[in-house]
Amino acid sequence: MWRRALTPSLSAALGRRTFNSDVASRTRRHVIAALVVNQAGTLAEIANLLSARGYNIDSLVVGRTDAPELSRMSIVVHGTDENVWNMKKQLEDVVQVAAVKILTAQEHASDNLIERDLMLAKVSTRQTGSRGEVIELASLFDAKVLDVTPTQLMVQLAGTPTRIESFLELLKPHGIVEIHRSGVIAMDRLISVTDTTVEIAFDRHPKEVEDVDTTMLPPG
């Protein structure tokens, strides 16, 4: 069998394709929470930092906290664990950032946090029977009907991003006139004070977390 030798340029192209495929397989969704100083220009500086580094931001939400001088920022980003860890370090270097936490640092990340998104949507009801069907769908998803006109309904749904996406897919056949989503806010679940392994996973690089020797733990 005759085989043609690969040219250097073709070999390099194949190498890049393999590398990109490997990176894509390790990319996953991450949620980052940050406490920032509540002053003018903070959001712009952080947004410019993330944009300059080329991070793929899905959602960025900022809101007030119980402390007037601080705001809480929730960032949803797709990337590898290494990229997100670097992003955390870069955010910590910003003067206006008080604290940063990766809420999805562990495996089974969806079990470690609670996240909510808020959606408002105007749906057409011009088709025969559409009004009743939209109201029934809203009831099934625990959504609220906020406004009614002869040709449209406005509905509100608060829930996980996945639940909202499922609701929107069912509304599409009726005709979505307008939609607005607030973006994701998230908090980690309540953790027992004795569960030190979880705290370590949040505060350290994934590669730095060592396996816990269960023989060294107290009974129970």
Helix count, per DSSP?
A: 6
User: What sequence of helices (H) and strands (E) makes up the elements?
Assistant: HEHEEHEEHEEHEEH
Q: What's the total number of strands?
A: 9
> Which regions have little confidence, pLDDT < 50, spanning 5+ residues?
192-210
CATH class of the domain at 28-105: Alpha Beta
In angstroms, what separates the terminal alpha carbons? 66 Å
The CATH homologous superfamily name of the domain at 28-105 equals ACT domain
Choose one word for the global shape.
elongated
Describe the main β-sheet briefly: 5 strands, antiparallel
Strand content: 25-35%
Rounded mean pLDDT score: 80
CATH topology of the domain at 28-105: Alpha-Beta Plaits
User: What proportion of the residues is helical, as a percent range?
Assistant: 25-40%
